[in-house]
């Protein structure tokens, strides 16, 4: 009860002592900070297919193909779109991404992380079937920049719902 009275008294004193226009400026700044804090809650993790005991495959395709990670485990902030496989940055910031994959029956996996149309990172495996590869990268992104993973032409990737994944999160806003 005492703490509630203290807060009311502090609020009244703050309002009384505020200069004309100063209070509305404070409110605007606080609302902007709150908006940034809400948009800064960004994290997602998805795998290519639903959990199964059967290996499911993507590829080989004649051209580079965007991978759509259908099994969304986490999507805080809704930055990842499971219909397109694209992550869209909601705020300017430093983001961390990791891609994992398992080579399919042709024994070769080669996929790349793209920032827009630019290849920025790749995973590669040529050790045979069911051999894994992973890679991670930190990227500075502007609002609405997009990140996606593409399977390169002629390669395959397999999954049972837990092994071929795409994960990202906001490290901090800038």
Entry summary:
With 174 residues, the protein is an alpha+beta fold. Helices cover 20% and strands 43% of the residues. It contains two helices and 13 strands.
Can you describe what's shown?
This protein has 174 residues and is an alpha+beta fold. The protein has two helices and 13 strands. It has helices at residues 2-17, 22-39; strands at residues 43-47, 56-58, 65-66, 71-76, 80-81, 86-88, 93-103, 109-115, 118-125, 132-141, 146-151, 157-159, 165-173. The strands form two sheets. Strands 1, 2, 4, 7, 10, 12 and 13 form a seven-stranded antiparallel sheet that branches. Strands 3, 5, 6, 8, 9 and 11 form a six-stranded antiparallel sheet that branches. The longest helix is centred in the N-terminal third of the chain and has 18 residues, at 22-39. 30% of the residues are buried.
Name some characteristics of this structure.
six-stranded antiparallel β-sheet; elongated; alpha+beta; single chain; 174 residues; 20% helix; seven-stranded antiparallel β-sheet
Kindly report how far apart the N and C termini lie: 39 Å
Main sheet properties: 7 strands, antiparallel
Order of SSEs, N→C? HHEEEEEEEEEEEEE
Q: Report the count of strand segments.
A: 13
CA-atom Rg in angstroms:
23 Å
Tally the helices: what do you get?
Answer: 2
Strand content: 35-45%
Task: Specify the helix fraction band.
Answer: 10-25%
Low-pLDDT ranges: none
For the residues shown, what is the average pLDDT? Answer: 87
Please tell me what the overall shape is: elongated
Structural class: alpha+beta
């Amino acid at each position: 009860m005492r703490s509630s009275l203290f807060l009311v008294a502090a609020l009244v004193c703050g309002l009384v002592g505020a200069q004309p226009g100063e209070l509305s400026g404070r409110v605007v700044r606080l609302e902007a900070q709150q908006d940034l804090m809400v948009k800064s809650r960004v994290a997602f993790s998805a795998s290519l297919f639903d959990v199964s005991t059967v290996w499911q495959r993507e590829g080989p395709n004649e051209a580079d193909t965007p991978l759509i990670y259908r099994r969304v485990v986490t999507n805080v902030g809704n930055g990842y779109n499971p219909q397109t496989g694209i992550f869209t940055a909601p705020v300017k910031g430093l983001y961390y991404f990791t891609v994992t994959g398992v080579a399919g029956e042709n024994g070769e996996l080669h996929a790349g992380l793209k920032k827009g149309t630019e290849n920025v990172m790749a995973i590669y495996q040529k050790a045979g079937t069911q051999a894994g590869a992973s890679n991670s990268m930190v990227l500075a992104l502007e609002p609405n920049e997009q990140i996606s993973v593409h399977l390169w032409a002629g390669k395959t990737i397999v999954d049972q719902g837990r092994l071929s994944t795409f994960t990202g999160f906001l490290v901090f806003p800038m």
